[in-house]
Amino acid sequence: MSPTSAPVRRRRRIVAFSAVGILIVVALALGVYVPAALAAPLPHAQVELTVPTPAPAPPAVLALPGVGAAAVALKGSDELLGESGQAGPVPIASVTKVITALVVLQAHPLVEGDDGPGITMTARDVQILEQTRAVDGSYELVNEGQVLTERQVLEIMLLKSANNYAETVTNWAFGSLAAYLDAARSFTAEHDLADTTIADASGLDPASRSSTTDLMTVASLALADPVLARIVSTALDDIPVIGEIDNSNKLLGIDGIDGIKTGTTDEAGSCLLFSAEFTVGDEVKSVVGVILGAESSQAARDAVQALLASTRAGFTTLPLIREDADVGTYTTAWGETAAIVAAADGEAVVWSNDAVVVDASARDVVIARSGVDVGTIRYTIDDSTEQVALELDGTLEDPGFWWRIGHPELVFG
């Protein structure tokens, strides 16, 4: 063996050992990296949403009268759907009695099934009857010693529009007209009825005045009291001793009308505070309205029916979106795409040409099957919101082994 052979062998062994070491390092690296790459979370698919805004419905055209004043609103709403004529206070005749009933019931509340305490008619009540007849006011007979419940007295006052019973019930509830007027002023202040002045219990005094806007609030307050709402919707009642009394509101039961009060004086003209329910699509709409200063009772009734019909026509079932409408896409980092579609038809009942505000959101998605719920479209109209679910139309699959290990950023960021 030559003296130079040993170093060569050593170098070959070193090279061999180095190659083995590299293979071991590579194997170890692959053994760590590959499982890490396969287990690493995948990036969320990019989402793009483009949800169309529905075109508004045609504007409502209300049949508002050309004389007097009128207004209509949704029950309980502070916003009028429409109005015409004088906006400020005007005489309101026997519509005043609705406020009388509200003030009395605030002091002496009733619940359904409770007729309240008995009220014994006195010589004073007989005298009030004679005074009412002397000024040609509306009235109902009364006998000294006759006993009627609180509810019956309110029914006679409202259905028969008896002025004498309006005075009788306020004298019973408050002791005197002056005390009642103090309570009425407190009531109007409490409910922000700035245009309303109460000068008597019956409305015969033209100084008892209100505005169409205030009367929308009064109507909603009346309907919110179950006992009062039941009374004003009663067409015919039977009172002991007195007998049957008809409601002066001859529109009850027509066109969904279920209240509230008529009134006529020389100064106020013919007035009708009304409420009604009707169905639009699958929704029940409750409205209140008023006609003030009509030329006759028939003119007031005609005006109410025309206004109510045009109000009903002003509500529209507006299509918002159709099932399977394409509103966006998901796109994955590995090149797959899937459509986002509406999961169902959407529609809403809108008033007139109220604008529809659209807002949509989609959840983060990585891998998903077709049909999965991925988000929501919210349609806001005035103070209500309709929602339509979004779903995936297509499948987003896992990118697989080679894509995962070919993207080290999954592991190392």
CATH 2nd-level architecture of the largest domain: 3-Layer(aba) Sandwich
Helix content: 25-40%
Structural class, by secondary structure, is alpha+beta
Total beta strands: 19
Order of helices and strands: HEEEEHEHEHHHEHHEEEEEHEEEEEEEHH
The average pLDDT value, as a whole number, equals 93
User: What count of structural domains?
Assistant: 3
What general form does the structure show? elongated
Strand order of the largest sheet: 1-14-15-19-18-17
Q: What characterizes the major β-sheet?
A: 6 strands, antiparallel
C-alpha end-to-end distance: 57 Å
CATH class of the largest domain, anyone? Alpha Beta
Short description:
The chain is of the alpha+beta class. It has helices at residues 5-39, 96-107, 123-134, 150-159, 163-174, 177-190, 212-224, 226-232, 297-313, 401-405, 409-412; strands spanning 46-49, 69-74, 80-84, 90-91, 118-120, 147-149, 209-210, 236-239, 243-246, 257-265, 269-280, 283-294, 315-321, 326-331, 337-342, 346-351, 356-362, 373-381, 384-393.
What labels would you give this structure?
34% helix; 413 residues; 28% strand; 3 domains; 6-stranded antiparallel β-sheet; Peptidoglycan synthesis regulatory factor (PBP3), Domain 2; Beta-lactamase; 19 strands; 11 helices
Blueprint (SSEs and pairs):
Blueprint: H1 5-39, E1 46-49, E2 69-74, E3 80-84, E4 90-91, H2 96-107, E5 118-120, H3 123-134, E6 147-149, H4 150-159, H5 163-174, H6 177-190, E7 209-210, H7 212-224, H8 226-232, E8 236-239, E9 243-246, E10 257-265, E11 269-280, E12 283-294, H9 297-313, E13 315-321, E14 326-331, E15 337-342, E16 346-351, E17 356-362, E18 373-381, E19 384-393, H10 401-405, H11 409-412
Antiparallel strand pairs: 1-14, 2-3, 2-12, 4-7, 5-6, 8-9, 10-11, 11-12, 13-16, 14-15, 15-19, 17-18, 18-19
Helix pairs in contact: 2-5, 2-7, 3-5, 4-5, 5-6
